[in-house]
Amino acid sequence: MRRSFKFLLRPTRHQEIALAACLEDHRTLYNAALEHRRTAYRKAGVTIRYGDQSADLKHIRADDTGGQGRWSFSSQQATLRRLDRAFRAFFDRVKAGRTPGFPRFKGRGRFDTVEWPRDGDGCRWDSQPEHPTAAFVRLQGVGHVRVHRHRPVKGRVKTIGVKREGDRWYVVLSCDDVSAEPLPATGTAVGIDMGVASLVTTSGGEHVANPRHLAATADRLADAQRALARKKRGSTRRRKAVARVAALHGKVRRQRLDHGHKAVFALVRTYDVIVHEDLRIANMTRSASGTLTQPGRNVAAKSGLNRSILDAGWGVFLTILSYKAESAGRELIAVNPAHTSRTCAACGHRAAENRLTQAEFACTACGHTAHADVNAAVNILRAGLALRRAARAV
Predict the structure, then answer these.
(1) Cα separation of 282 and 163, whole Å?
(2) What are the b/e assignments for 312-347, b being 16+ CB within 10 Å?
(3) Contact (Cβ atoms closer than 8 angstroms) between residue 54 and residue 43
(4) Structure confidence by residue, pLDDT tens digits, 248-283
(5) Quick one: 161 and 233 in the same domain?
(6) pLDDT tens per residue across span 321-353
(7) Which residue range is the domain that position 171 belongs to?
(8) Residue 350 neighbours by CB under 8 Å, 6+ apart
C-alpha cells in the first residue's frame, strides 16, 4: 500500500532563499517547455514530446550552470513530465468532448511544488540519521533542511516533494510497502448521508457537526481582501496583504482537514462496513449562471449552496475515508445517491412529497416519520449491503 507523509520544514534564511530560487527555476523551465511545444506546433506543425525536451535538458543545464544547472536533473525531468501529463489530460478531455482547457503558463503564485522522483537521486530523506533529536532532508542546491517530523515514517520512501503554502514549506514523502494496520472487527455496518446542516448523518441516527470553518472566518477574510484591494500592485504592502489572505485560507484548510480526520477515525474505529453516496461534487457545485442568451435561475441561491457544500469539505472527507478505511481493513462501498432522500425506509414508497422540509421526512403512503437524513442513510446502507451480496454471489 502507498501512503503519503507531510511534514513542516524548518529552513534557515539562506535555505529558504535557495528553496524559493529552486521553485522559480522549475517554474521557468515549465513555462519555457510549454512555449517550446506551442511554438513548434504553430510554426512548423511539429509535435514536441517529453523525450525530446528531456534530451535537450542537458544542454540547457550546461549553458546555465549558475541557474538550471544547480538543481537535480531528475527533479527537472519530473517538471517536464508534469507538463507532459497536462498535455495528455488536455487531449483526453478533447476526445471525451469536455471543455478542453489548454495547458497554461504558470504565474509566480501558481507553481508551488517541486518533486524528486527517487530518494537518493538529488535528495535524501533522513540525511543525518546520527542526529539525536531532529530529522533532516537533503536537497541538491539547498542543503540539509530540518524537518518537524511529528510522526514516524512507514514503508520505503519512493519520491520526495517540497511544497510552499503561503510562507510555510513542507516536505511530502510518498512511501511504498506501507503495511496495513487492521483494527479489531466490530461486526457492524453503517450508511452515511453527507449534508450541509450536519456533515455526516449515520443510519443509526448520529450526527457529525459541520463546523463551517469558512463561514466562521468570513468577516476576517473579507477585511483582509478589502485591504488587499486597496494596495498598489508590486508594492511591499500588497505582498503582505496577499500573505495575510493566504494565511487565513490556509488556516481554514487545515481546520477542515483536522475535523475530517477526526470524524473519519471515529467511523472507521466503530464499523466494519461503511456505505456512502457516490457523489459527483464537481457537478453538484457547478454554477447556475448560464449564458448571456439563456441566463440561469436562482443564481444567488445556487451560489450560496455551492459555497456551503465546498465549506463542508465533502471531497476532503471522502478522500480521507477512502485511505483510512483501506489502512484499517474496513470495507467501503459507494452507492448511487439517486432518490435515497425521497424513498421511505419503512415501506419503499418513493415520492417528492415524502420530504416535507430539509430535516423532516413523512411517508405519504405508510405514515412513517423520521429525520430526513437518517432515513436517507438507512436507504444508503440497504443499497450498499445489496450490492455487497450481489458481488459475493457472483
Answers:
(1) 25
(2) bbbebbbebbeebbebbebebbbbebeebbbbbbee
(3) no
(4) 999 999 999 999 999 999 999 999 999 999 988 888
(5) no
(6) 999 999 999 999 999 999 999 999 999 999 989
(7) 3-176
(8) 339, 342, 343, 344
Dist. CA 201–CA 27, nearest whole Å: 44
Residue 247 lies inside a defined structural domain of this protein? yes
Tell whether 181 is covered by a domain.
Answer: no
90 shares a domain with 123: yes
Closest by CA position to 177, among listed 160, 148, 149, 153: 153
CA distances (Å), origin 53, targets 29, 34, 70, 178: 10, 10, 18, 34
Q: Are residues 76 and 98 in the same domain?
A: yes
pTM assigned to the model:
0.84
In a domain, 127, yes or no: yes
195 and 172 share a domain?
no
Q: How many domains does the chain have?
A: 2
Mean pLDDT computed over 206-210:
93
In this structure, are 276 and 387 located in the same domain?
A: yes
Residues 121, 197: one domain?
Answer: no
CA angle 18, 24, 47 (to 5 degrees): 140
Antiparallel, parallel or unpaired: β 113-116 and 156-165: antiparallel
Q: Is 298 exposed, middle or buried (0-12, 13-18, 19+ CB in 10 A)?
A: exposed
Are residues 268 and 335 part of one domain?
Answer: yes
Short-list 202, 121, 166, CA closest to 378: 202
Residue where a domain terminates, one of 126, 155, 176 = 176
The one-letter code for the residue type at 299 is V
Instruction: Based on the fold, state whether residues 242 and 384 are members of the same structural domain.
Output: yes
Q: Give alpha helix (H) positions in the chain.
A: 13-44, 50-63, 73-96, 213-216, 218-229, 236-270, 281-284, 299-312, 314-328, 372-393
Cα 109-114-118 angle, rounded to 5 deg? 170
As annotated, the active-site residues are 193, 277, 373
In a domain, 281, yes or no: yes
Q: What is the pLDDT of residue 291?
A: 63
CA distance 47 to 79: 19
Query: Amino acid identity, residue 306?
Result: N
CA dist., res. 208 & res. 193, Å (int) = 10
